[in-house]
Amino acid sequence: MDLHEASNPGHTLSRGRVAMWSLIVAESAIFLIFVAAYIFYLGKSLTGPTPDQVLTVPVISTICLLSSSFTIHWATHALKQGALGMFKLAWLITLALGAIFLAGTAREWRDLIYVKGFTIGTNLAGTTYYSLVGLHASHVGVGLVALTTVMIAAALGKVRQEHAERCEVLALYWHFVDVVWVVVFTVVYGLGR
Amino acid sequence: MASESISLPVPRESSRSVVLDWLFTVDHKKIGLMYIVYALLFLVVMGIEAMFMRIQLSRPDNSFLSAETFNRLFTMHGTTGVFFVAMPILVGFGNYFVPLMIGARDMAFPRLNAFSFWITAFAGFLLYASFLAGGPLRQVGSAPDVGWFAYAPLTATAFSAGHSTDFWTLSILIAGIGSIGGAINMIATVLCLRCPGMTLNRMPLFAWMNLVMGGLILVTISPLTAAQIMLMIDRYLSGHFFDPSAGGSAVLWMHFFWIFGHPEVYVLIIPSFAFISEIIPVFSRKAIFGYPAMVAATTSIGFVSLGVWAHHMYTVGMPSYGNAFFVFTTMLVAVPTGIKIFNWMATIWGGKVRFATPMLFCIGFLFQFLMAGLTGIMLADAPFDWQLGNSYFVVAHFHYVIVGGILFSIFAAFYYWYPKMTGRMLSEKLGKWHFWIFVIGFHLTFDTMHAPGLLGMPRRIYTYPADRGWGAWNLVSTVGAFVQAIGTLIFVFNMIYSYFKGPLAGNDPWDAWTLEWSTTSPPPEYNFAVEPSVRSRRPLWDIKHPQDPDWKYE
Amino acid sequence: MNLRNRLKIWPTSFVSRAVLALAFCMLAPLFAASQSHSPLSPTNIFAPDSTPAHSVFRISSFVLEITAAIFVVVFSLLTYAIIKFRERKGENASEPPQVYGSNQMEVAWTILPVIIVVVLFLSTAQVIHRVQDAVAPSGAIQVTVVGHQFWWEYRYPQYNIVVANELHVPVSNLSSSTPTYLNLLSGDVDHSFWVPRLAGKTDLIPNHPNTMWIDPQETGLFLGQCAQFCGAQHAKMLLRVYSQSRADFDRWVQNQQQPAVSDPAGAAGSALFITKTCFACHTIRGTAGVGIVGPDLTHLMSRDTIAAGVLPNTPENLRVWIRNPEAIKAGSKMPVIDMTDDELYQIVAYLMTLR
Domain A2-191 carries which CATH code? Predict the structure, then answer.
């Protein structure tokens, strides 16, 4: 397949990259609809608490998630150079940062649901908040599963320099998840409150 | 350049290993065939659903079907038609022929290809399992009965108890995953796997259109997926997205659904254009007229189609400037569509038209798509739509596009490419019988169907009073349905009979010009023994006309 | 003539068949359109009798003319092309001249359609504005329409009356314009109010009030029905609009404003009305019946039909409907109530007194 691509006139496009970008386009469209619903329903809840009454800005989680974009970039860069040790370290840190983000979200939700009584069924604000943040969190979760798979493979010594391209494609997904968080964060904690 | 396959004597396979081979195959040709056969099965099913509905509507106050049964039938008919007939069959042909046309070995992601097919197949069976699933409601199991666009709040648990709506939501959600997988695959294939010399400017229009279709699917299916997740949240997690009692908006569902629904019909028509764009040149013996314009028109249709959705919502009470905006964009999308019709006509102009069956269906397409486009302009006009909307005029219009346009192009594609896929020609005689009978039935049903719409007959009604003056028109439409059924049966018979008894096709029975005709019929599993390399849009024309090759003029 | 010879001349018969089929499909509706008070159908969109319907009719005719012209031109060109450029038997086997395109043609057949689009858009935008943004004059009748599964509720706030299924409005002519403005609400799912001869349809959507207006130019009965799929009996949610002279309309309003007639002939039935729980869904003003789930029955006998236009309002039909609503409208919200034949007759006798 590599030979084939090399002989293609002017084609340095890799299938993996094209596929991941396509997936990102599709996923962006899904998120866009949830964001549209969120914005449309701002201020329209008939009852119950408004977002600014119950939500607290998740500063630590956000810092962790956004930093993980840097660490994953560091990891793939290291892998391209052949620095396998560095790669594994940076990859592990990325994984940890992502996990911290999810744990933070879980904590926030536990507080909202059991302490403040703010659930997905409470009102429009609840429905749109949990669905949007939840959709994002599920994408982080899928990303973590993928990252863990690579981590295990790396621990078993199966990841080598020639796999850098594939790790970069996965990193592209991870960057996408981070960019989505920037948007969700702005809409929920910026606009919404 | 002809590719050669090496035949060795092969021991006869056991049926078990044949089944396993098809079950686990990742070969784009086999997957394409599975998509096509799957779609044909559902085509017959939806045809039967249509026949039942037409019988019920053939006269006023009829009691052949109960209201509930009728409502389930039109829901299933529409849903099946869009997701389990049209999409799979078009994706099937794309799967089979895009790699061949661009000189590739297979699609970019063969395993993703297989996954996309099987998940789509599963989704279809899930939808139909609803008929069997017992539910708390009257009659015919638990098939969904909310219409294929499932407007809120009719789909809320308050108004749709039981699980019938969930069968609709889940099966389409799952089919959507298959569609997105297929789209990703097609885009990667077209962008990355073209053979040497085949720049984007030289690839067949068929490949271009599948590329645009793929891109459109990415941004079209996703909004529906999102809306369906929201619906499930409403139904099972006490969400309020579309719950008016909590301030939710039924109109929001409409927006989300049609943001999917309108581009979706372009997802369906663009591959249909692909068939026409390959077949008309071959049977007019001329290159397609205006290749760059065709590419530009298709791409702009893709983009503009994203901005027209609310023409399905002219009656919901959008402000006047909102309605006016969508009138403008909807009429605008007719411009590139018209350009394509003119380019096809210009291809025929000055040519030497051969009226083989594929071309007959293409000519039917041209006349009928023209008509459908014009009734579309009428519907695009908001005030006219205030009368015509949600009436049988709309039903007539979209069946004109889907049957008169898309299905005719699919029939053309079958007659054209069946020889390549099976190695045998379909019977021309049976083909012509199929064409004439079907065209007569089509016009009987769908030309007359415009009339009840103009006379005030809304859609989705299981019966109507005798004093409306709709009875005679409906009866004629029903008769036409039976005629179309006969035509379809002839087609099915033709396919089965010719598989065994049809004359051998050879590599290139139509004297065509794109790369798939350089392989054997059917092609070997690896497609090309030697990777082709091209210098123009019609590589086989260059070979057949070495003194006058295309690359001198392009 | 044998089959082979027939096949040889088929290009011509193709064309004549195509022309016949299309002529049929074009002429039939045009014929329908040519009838102004059409015996073809009481719901003919080309027989407008109200200002919004007339506005729609005018722009629709314009659009039809343009699309018909486009159709004739393109159809003729296409027909000409497939006849003139067909491969003739015995011709040499060479390929025709390969023409790859023409920029001038592309420009021409882009610009011309764009011009047509702009013309259509501008004329349409005007009509949209005129119909949708019309402001109710002070003398207009106001009616609140509430759509239900599967019946229509009409409230006249100016007169303090609530009726069901049959809408009465005063006729509106050029000398004294009395339009009726409808505020459209829904009590459950989406519906749509469509009386073709009076106006285009407008939807009734829960939590999303809409408005429309009608001004019938003649007295008479105008028919229509719900035009947005609303569930099992969407097909039997019929519309009846009675356009009356001002005097007749005022008389009708006056009658509706009275509380229910108290006729001793209906005494037994009126007691059953309560014990059989009919009062829980139906209002009969002046009695214990205050339910709002079903239609107001205070002056049931002033209506021509029952069950939202499905059955003529006769004693026999009343009995059939009450005995088993499922048999007439399977899926309607009216439950089957257990009662003896005697009880049924008494209830209907009571209803017959509600003039």
Answer: 1.20.120.80
